[in-house]
Amino acid sequence: MVQIINDMNEFKAFLTAAGHKLAVVEFSSKWCGPCKRMVPVFHAMSVKYQNVFFANVDVNNSPELTETCHIKTIPTFQMFKKSQKVTLFSRIKRMICCYRSGFMRNPIFEFSGADAKQLEAKIQELM
C-alpha cells in the first residue's frame, strides 16, 4: 500500500514508522506524464514488497516538503532507512552537475524519466 503524505509531520511519522526497513518516497504530480505511468507500477511494487514502506508526495499539494527534500524534477524517488536518505532517483542532469563540481563523495543514483526496472533493482539491492 502507498501512503499519501501531505506535510512534514506526516513525512516524519512515515519515516519513524518504517524504522530500520526501507522506505521509498515518490515525489510526483497528477499532471506529469511519466508520473502517471509510474502510478500502477509503484502500487504494484508496494504489494510485491510487503517489507518495504511506500509513500507518495504530490509536489503541488506539498510545496514546503518538496522544497525541504530538494526536489527539482519529477518523478523523483528517494529512499530512506532509519530516517536517513539512502539514495535518490531523478534526472541525469543533476548527476552530471554534481560530478563536474566534484561533489561525488556520496554517489547519487539518478536517471531520467520513470524507469521502473532501475527503481525495482535499487529496492531489491537496499532491502
Task: Give an account of the 3D structure.
By secondary structure, this protein is of the alpha/beta class. It is 42% helix and 22% strand. Helix 2 links the parallel strand 2 and strand 3 (53-58). The protein is globular, with a radius of gyration of 14 Å.
Strand order in the sheet with the most strands: 1-3-2-4-5
Estimate percent helicity: 40-55%
The best one-word shape is: globular
- The share of residues in extended strands comes to 15-25%
Instruction: Write the element-wise H/E pattern from the N-terminal end onward.
Output: EHEHEHEEHH
- What does the largest sheet look like? 5 strands, mixed
Radius of gyration: 14 Å
Number of helices: 5
- The first-to-last residue Cα distance is 17 Å
Would you tell me the overall average pLDDT? 82
Low-confidence parts, pLDDT < 50 over ≥5 residues?
90-98, 101-112
Number of strands: 5
SS class: alpha/beta
Give a nutshell description of this structure.
This protein is an alpha/beta fold.
